[in-house]
Fold:
Amino acid sequence: MQIITVNVNKGGAGKTTFTHNFAEYLRKNYRVLVLDFDDSANLTSRYGQFHDLHHTIIELFDHGVVEPIAISKNLDLIAGHREVELLKERVQSKRRREYLFGKWLAQNIQELQSKYDYILIDTENDEGILTQNAIITSDLVVGIAEPHKDNVTALANLRSFVNDLNADFDMNTQLVFVANKINRSKDNSKELLKSLSKFTEYAGYLPDRTLIADDVAIFNKKVVSKKNAQDVEHVSELFEVIRKKVEGEV
Ligand SMILES: Nc1ncnc2c1ncn2[C@@H]1O[C@H](COP(=O)(O)OP(=O)(O)O)[C@@H](O)[C@H]1O
Ligand SMILES: [Mg+2]
Structure:
């Protein structure tokens, strides 16, 4: 079982879109548990409305007990909730607050390993306590940038953040970078790709497509055109590179 966190301290870069599509890619062949650590709960709302706290990260962090929701074949969700904002304040005053998620994992490791191949965590644009909990336990962090000013800086900051956490908590979390919303004929996309290609962490890009900017994952749509099919192929290849990376196969 491998744990992957998607984070960058930049709103709108595509974390939730990436997490959702990656989860839907993985579940074709693997068993996946998705967690939504963002108080805006955007990822959760792509799967439905869940108000019962027993299915949310609030119960996980407050009491160490949670019931994942069976969403579809091979995919379970531990939901986000708008009250996560308050949860973050409570967590701040707890002892070993960076380890609460790690503790839950350790206490449930046998069951989790028997049920899931991958755990995917969507986070918010911060370096806050829930994000720290996610990164500390992860095998891999995926950082995303879109072709806007400051997005490359945000990835460099993410690298420092992961390095600091690795040093402080004696971890060896790996990092990959993904460019998002790429239109190869536009200058800002070309600039982003040029900057990112210098980073050893760079894994590839997602194209700028209305097909991707949608609550339905790219793999769950009726593919109508040859261009759409090419996009699905391209995105699948990127996801497979990242999957192999976390498995240590590349
Ligand atoms: N590859 C893409 N092509 C087109 N639109 C995208 C793409 N990726 C994300 N978007 C759109 O960009 C916006 C921000 O994406 P989101 O995943 O919510 O970012 P984040 O979670 O980092 O805040 C959303 O409206 C989403 O639909
Ligand atoms: Mg998001």
